[in-house]
Amino acid sequence: MTNPENTTIDLAGLGITALNEMQQQANEAIQQNSEVVLLAPTGSGKTLAFLLPVASILKPESDHVQCMVIVPTRELALQIEQVWKKMSTGFKVTCCYGGHDMQTEIRSLVEAPALIVGTPGRILDHIRRNSFTGRHISTLILDEFDKSLELGFQEEMSEIVRNLRNVKKKVLVSATTTKIPSFTSIKAPVTVDFVTNKNKSEGLTVVQVLAEKDKMTTLVRLLSYLGAESTLIFCNQRDSVERISAVLKEEGIDCAFFHGKLEQEERERTLIRFRNGSVLFLAATDLAARGLDIPDMKHVIHFELPMKGDEFTHRNGRTARMLAEGTAYILMDREDKLPDYIIGKPKVLDLPAKLAAPPVSDWVTIYISGGKKSKLNKMDIVGFLLQKGKLEKQDLGLIEVKDNISFAAVKRGRAEAMLQLISAEKMKGKKYKIEIAR
């Protein structure tokens, strides 16, 4: 695909063959208008929808920061950074978020990337430190801006906007209809709305599961019913998330957990294991409802229903993504009343009394103590594991290379033998710690 300014985007590298209707409309609207509000469901491809016009707007001859994307969470920031890199625009991006090494970010910002993506607190910190010059930033995008407000970032975002005095194009992005905050000074935006009525996902099926007094027993039976397919289990509280994971493990079901109080490295490892299929079930708070790069999600389970309809929408957006099909299960008693935000009558599922426990994943995740800064890339790891570990290509799954560490999915039945074979081997002349990630 070729955009104006001769910027060519390789859609195949992004895993798609063509833009969907929302992406086409958003691309056109953002290029042609100075104020745009993009409303589209979670999982519909919003990130690409606003990055495509950015790639067209950026000026190759400029050696200044030209565009900023502000997001509520580090996970969303990292996802946007990865999409941008896959687009192969030739323009540099820097990702800034709390928990990341400040000096690493400052060194990257000194080189003036064309695009900065980050969370409000960290970006404001850099502005106050004068880590970069903002006077050439002409495009500002607030992605999931409603979530940023919900998390209490209004003051930070307001100060950021006040400091960016030469912004000519403002884009607000959300999966739900939300009032435009006054600090944006947006007066008459063009709205691209794929949230209301007919534009909602047609691939989603909502099912009510008749629960026993002990909902955990019902959850175990439901996971057994679903089998070996990736499933997100949503709860309202962190304690519930950890309790579900612990109880399921006691039942012999491997279930990871994910919430905002985990350290960044723990969150990243958990998502990697879930993304590559090493762990099939993930119990999570609403932090996982938005902005996480988790492809091929089959099922979402509402162990506890959220208080607000918006969060119900966001949770369900983790499945039936990009026009695929998926199912959202609600665990409720037969007599319980559905909240008003659930439109229509869900299908009812009465689980069989006897079910075999879900099988263990075919994959395990291998941890490697080196990454990009050690000059390792995916091909290095593939070659090493195939040649020294005696694996076949079909024994290797998803490989992710980070700055200082890497992870590779390996068939469970081959992992231990492979680890023994490579225990004394070097990769690119260096010995790395390689073990099964926990």
From TrEMBL:
Gene Ontology CC: cytosol
Matches recorded under SUPFAM superfamilies: P-loop containing nucleoside triphosphate hydrolases (SSF52540)
Q: Residue limits of the Helicase ATP-binding domain?
A: 27-176
Q: Which UniProt keywords apply?
A: ATP-binding, Helicase, Hydrolase, Nucleotide-binding
- CDD domains listed in its UniProt record: DEADc, SF2_C_DEAD
**What GO molecular function annotations does the UniProt record carry, in alphabetical order?**
ATP binding; hydrolase activity; nucleic acid binding; RNA helicase activity
Q: Which Gene3D superfamilies match?
A: 3.30.70.330, P-loop containing nucleotide triphosphate hydrolases (3.40.50.300)
One Pfam family of this protein, by short name? Helicase_C
Helicase C-terminal domain sequence ranges:
218-364
Write down the InterPro entries for this protein, in alphabetical order. Answer: DbpA/CsdA_RNA-bd_dom, DEAD/DEAH_box_helicase_dom, DEAD/DEAH_RhlB, DEAD_box_RNA_helicase, Helicase_ATP-bd, Helicase_C-like, Nucleotide-bd_a/b_plait_sf, P-loop_NTPase
Q: Which domain of life is it from?
A: Bacteria
What family does the database annotate? Belongs to the DEAD box helicase family.
Q: Which PANTHER family match?
A: ATP-DEPENDENT RNA HELICASE DBPA, ATP-DEPENDENT RNA HELICASE RHLE-RELATED
Protein's name according to its UniProt entry: DEAD/DEAH box helicase
* Source organism per UniProt: Dyadobacter chenhuakuii
